[in-house]
Input
Amino acid sequence: MSRDVTYTTAAGKWRRTEYVCVVSTLDTPLATFPIPFLTTCGDNTWSYVIYAVSLVVDNDPLHPATLVDSNGQALTPEGIPSPGNYRYIENGPLTLTSRRPADTQMTFPCR
Output
């Protein structure tokens, strides 16, 4: 009997919906959040999105990150996420963590 455990990703569960897509300053895809997931996760704010993205990058604690929209406007952390493409901006260095292997087959639904 196999003891393998598999999980469905949020993007896999809500395929026909709108997304919040987050990229780095170099356009590296960092995270995709289905809007229905955000509205039901218990913390439907930009602050949660920033926190979740911070888990997959090495952050400099002296330079907190923010998200900006396509016009370069910073998003209010308490604001409610809306579908679209957003950029993760940090004043310090940004590198992907070694906690997770790079996913070279990642599809980015918001492009």
